Structure formats: C-alpha cells, structure tokens
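Hello forum,

I keep getting stuck at the same step: I have a sequence, I want structure tokens, and every attempt I make locally crashes halfway through. Rather than fight my setup again tonight, could one of you with a working pipeline run this one for me? It's a single chain of 377 residues.
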Amino acid sequence: MKQLVLKKPLIYFPKMGIKLKTTANQMQKREASERKHTHQSFIFHLLFLCTILFCACSSGKPDYDFKDSKDAISAYSDYLKCMKDLPQCSTKELEDCINNWHELSDTVYKYIRNDPYYTAHTDLKTEFFLLTDSVRAEILRLACSEPKTMKDVALLKMHTSPYRDNKELATVQKEAETFFAGLDKLPPYKSGTPADLLRQYSNFLEVAKSQEICDKQQLLKFLEIEDRHFRTFLSHISDYSNMGLSSITKNTEIICSQIFRSASNGQLESDYTMVYMSMRTDRRLLQNAAVCNDMLKAKKVKEGMKVNAFLWMVIQPYLSMDSFSITMMTEKQSKQYMSIAENYTQLIDNLAAVGLVDKETARQLPMQITRLYISSL
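Reply #2:
Ran it on my machine without issues. Output:
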C-alpha cells in the first residue's frame, strides 16, 4: 500500500520556514475555523487575558531589588548569557528556562515601565525587546537540542502557561466544571439516521444564530444543547466524511463571534464568558481527539485520506490549545491530554507499519509544534 503524507492545504509555522501538509478534509476545517473570530472578539480576548496576566505578574514574584532601570536590563542581559552557555537541556530543564524567563522578563518590564525615561526615549524599550527576542531565540535553540515527543509537548505547554498559578478565576472555573460535568449525563441524540442527526445539528445552529446570546442563561442553554449535538456528531464521525459540514462550521463560527461580542459589549460577564468558552473548546478538542485516537488504535479507519484526517484531529489539542485554555482543563481532562500524547508515538508506529502514514514526517510533528509554541511566547 502506498504511503501517504499529509497533503494540502499548506500550514506555515511562523519564524521557522517549515511547511506541514495536511488533508483538505471538511472534518479538519470544522474545529480550526471555530478559532477564527471577528476582530472585536480578538480584542476582547486580548484585553481580558492581559488583565488576568497583569494580576498574576503583580503578585507572588520575587523581589529582584533592582537599583535602577540599567540594573534591571543588566540582569536580563545576564540571563541571556546564561542561556547561551547552555549546550542543551531536557524538557524539564526547558520548562524551568521558560518559567524563569517569564518571571524575569515580567519583573524587568514592570520595573522599567515606571521609569520616565521609558516613555520619553525609545532606547530602554528597544533594548528590552531586543533582549526578549534574543532569549526566545536561545530557548528555541535549546528546545531543538533534543528530540521531542508529543508527551514533551503536553508537559511543556501544561507547565509553562503564564496563567497556571492564577487564582482570580477559581470560583468561575469550579462553577463551569460542575456545569460541563452535568452535560455528560445527557445522552447523545438517537432519533434518526446519521444524516438526519446532522441535519438536526445544522438546524439548531441556524436558530441559535438568529437569536443572539445576550445573557448567562441563554449561553448555558446553548452550550448544553450544542454539546449534546456535538457528542452525537462524534458518535457517527466515520459516517460524515462525505457529507457537507460547511453550514455547521460557518454557523458555529458566527455564534462564537456573537458570544464574544456580547461580552465585549458588557451583556455577558467577560470572565464568565472566557472561562466557559475556553472550557467548551477544551472539551470539544479532547472529545474529538479521543474518539479519533481510539478509532485509529482499533484499526477502524483504513482509508489513507481518512487516516490523515483523523490523525490531524488527534494532534489538535496540542497544536490549538492556547495558554489560557490549557489552564482551564479539569484534572480528568489533563490526564486524558497526557494519555493521548503518550500514545502518539506507538500510534504512528502502528499506522506506518501498514503504510498509512509517513513515519518520519509524523514523528517530526512534536518538534514542529514545540517550535511554534516557543515562537509564540
């Protein structure tokens, strides 16, 4: 059987010059397109996360006791020199390097930002950002000093999120955990053929799109019904490879944009919206990955193009989850996140053994995802 490598479209990994070919399959587009929100939604995300991160950075940091801005920049420069002296490092050491970098750069930036010279002249600001770029480049070099597995990717992202120790949203997060756990008690829909169930999903989204979500109860009701439709979809995922999913993809994207717009306008609480929507994303990505992973392990998918599409779904949690979403995972989800990652190498070996994937290409994905992650820090 001819080996297949991931095919069009091309996905470019920024700052790396690496291209990853993926299957142009509708199932792949579904989750990816949901992450594309309007400019207004993006601004809402950015402002909210900056607020949370600023709160985290303003407390619990060690006192570096800088004498002045020059001393702060000097400390940052010394850290860069230490990075350059390291020939290589393990994943655990890489985690420490990134966390120490976050801590030091946040503290230095906070210090020099209060210096009148910072706003009056560009020299101080320029030097800080040049050092930041240089440290990032050294951390990227160290990340490439040893091969990476998907387990390394999972550990790195879980242990280096700048939001991992933030307690500001603990109450809302606990509320959301209880809500989503309750959804598991609702069984998938069973009335009708797979095509009928898909049509019901599409009709639900059409109605939800026309009735913009503007309060908490509307949001919870939407999440409850959408989750049930999505789990129904997953229970028949192998039947949908040749069915049109464009309306579901497009309407889901529109509804998510509407929700974040309502939060931007103050109709929904921003912290509440971010937590619930992030946990929704975590839940969907992991449920999708788990189903596809199990089907590939059980050898229920044997067509080359479909194998590539399912494999793409398996890696989505490691590629798509941002730092905030990572911290929103429940304990059960974190274990699932690690379990799928630990299985990745064996899964690739098994698929390669029967000629369904190119082993070397698939084995390189964890390193490429690691490089992408560090480039985004």
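The beta strands are 10-13, 18-21. If your local run keeps crashing, start a new thread with the error log.
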